[in-house]
Amino acid sequence: MPAKQAVTRTEVADLFRRIIRLSDDTIGQNRLVYTPNWVAAQQALIKFAVDQKLTVSVDDYGTVYVDLPGQTTASPAIATGSHMDTVVHGGKYDGLYGVLGGLSALLQLRDKYGQPRQTLRVISFSEEEGSRFPVTFSGSKHYAGIIDVTGITDNAGISIDSARATAVSQLQREPGVSRSLPDLPQSFTELHIEQGPRLSNQGKTIGLVKAIVGQRRFSVTIIGAANHAGTTPMNVRKDALQTAVQLISRLNQLATAPDPLLTFTVGHLEVSPNTSNVIPGQVIFSVDCRHAEDRILDTFEIQLRNAVNQATAPGITTAISRWVSDKPVPLAAPLLAANRVLATRLGYDPVVMVSGAGHDSEIMSRVTPTTMIFVPSVAGISHAPKELTAPADLTAGIALLTASLHQQAYS
Ligand SMILES: NC(=O)NC(NC(N)=O)C(=O)[O-]
Ligand SMILES: [Zn+2]
Ligand SMILES: [Zn+2]
Question: Which residue among 292, 326, 360 closes a domain?
Fold first, then answer.
């Protein structure tokens, strides 16, 4: 291998380690969108790309676009990338692997073949996880021209508009950066860790994603009455938490009925006032449910709404609101077929699979042919600090991405 490519790989690996260190809080990675950790990570990426003499722009949602301009500037770019945000106490690879794996591929192609025929673009989407504000995929949705996110707040009451304005202006002021929303690309390929156990269980290195599950997220509110823990008789209490735990348990059972592959998660619980000697007056909890078929989600949503309504009692009211409704999405079959040939040529036996995690690819697929490459997650762990992918598997995914970008942008 030419020495230059080895140097490039080491430099990208250094950037990865630097970004990881920026947001490690001893429990896990925390790069919630528009927080100082997130700004520092996007800044590190920008500085690196500017030093590499790549063309860098930042849009008004804080998504970073790194271009290696092609000879035919009139043709749309060939794009890759993923998201820079994490969940709370997340792992090191979710999102960041796709951003820096894309950068590594782009630089290796430049080192080896020089200027591409078509522009190569690496995208670091601002937000995908929905972990800070009640919105998911806002980075790719903005790029795709699908939504305008405004007027929502995080748990601390900070509005997305003010958080975004402050954070994005910091990025747009970085030397060498232009403020723009680039044209949509000719194709989008997202490299990502699998986040589940299939590849690792089967001892396979590469997954090719044919579809992404649909997902719906809800917020359920139970309102009872706060009162004294020592003086209020048990039979007159309006305990919102007792209602919530019974309801959650019932929902967990109901979720097994429509289809064994339906997933159901209550991951967020807010108890108010959340102190030991006061009967909880209010509980808010999240529901996340997913399936590859929308009709299964329809069936479960009806059961969910009925169960929430039936949980009302004298002095207890309930409400439910849906804040995510994403349909299952098929990805581009021709790109998958091309990657299957390339993967086989590289010596892999790829597994064609459905993704149970949501991805920016489901948004990008609405505006351009889109495909995904998965590499194994050790023991299937993700959205947790123990998230891990073996170095050889990380390299394999980047090698396939590099081959795919080469095929698309140089031939
Ligand atoms: N790749 C992800 O972890 N995505 C996550 N985020 C969204 N928005 O789907 C998820 O929950 O699956
Ligand atoms: Zn994630
Ligand atoms: Zn992700």
Answer: 326
Domain shared by 197 and 178, yes or no: yes
CATH code, domain carrying 150: 3.40.630.10
Comparing C-alpha atoms, which of 85, 71, 79 is closest to residue 34? 85
Cα(385) to ligand 2 centroid in Å equals 12
CA dist., res. 71 & res. 375, Å (int): 32
CATH number at residue 291: 3.30.70.360
Residue 361 has pLDDT above 70, yes or no: yes
Q: What is the DSSP letter of 183?
A: P
The separation between the first and the last C-alpha atoms of the chain, rounded to the nearest angstrom, is 21
Instruction: Locate the DSSP E strands across 262-334.
Output: 263-265, 269-272, 278-279, 282-291, 317-326, 329-330
pTM exceeding the 0.90 threshold for the entire prediction: yes
Average pLDDT over residues 296-316: 98
CA 210, CA 331: separation in Å to the nearest integer?
Answer: 5
pLDDT at residue 48, as a whole number: 98
Q: How far apart are CA 410 and CA 184, in angstroms?
A: 19
> Rounded distance, CA 332 to CA 114, Å?
28
Q: How far apart are CA 217 and CA 201, in angstroms?
A: 29
Structure letter (DSSP) for residue 378: G
Give Rg (Cα) of the chain. Answer: 23
Per-residue burial over 114-149, b if 16 or more Cβ lie within 10 Å, else e, is eebebbbbbbbbbbbbbbbbbbbbbbbbbbbeeeeb
Q: Which domain holds residue 290?
A: 214-326
| 130 pocket-lining for ligand 1 (C-beta < 6 Å) | yes
Ligand 1, residues 128, 137, 216: which to mutate, most atoms within 8 A of Cβ? 128
Does residue 142 have a known ligand-binding role?
Answer: no
* Residue 409 clears pLDDT 60, i.e. is over it: yes
Residue 237: what pLDDT? 98
Among protein residues, the one whose CA lies closest to atom 6 of ligand 1: 129
Same domain? 53 vs 155: yes
Domain count, the chain: 2
CA nearest ligand 1 atom 8, residue: 129
Check whether residue 11 and residue 111 sit in a common domain.
yes
**Residue ending a domain, choose from 282, 300, 326:** 326
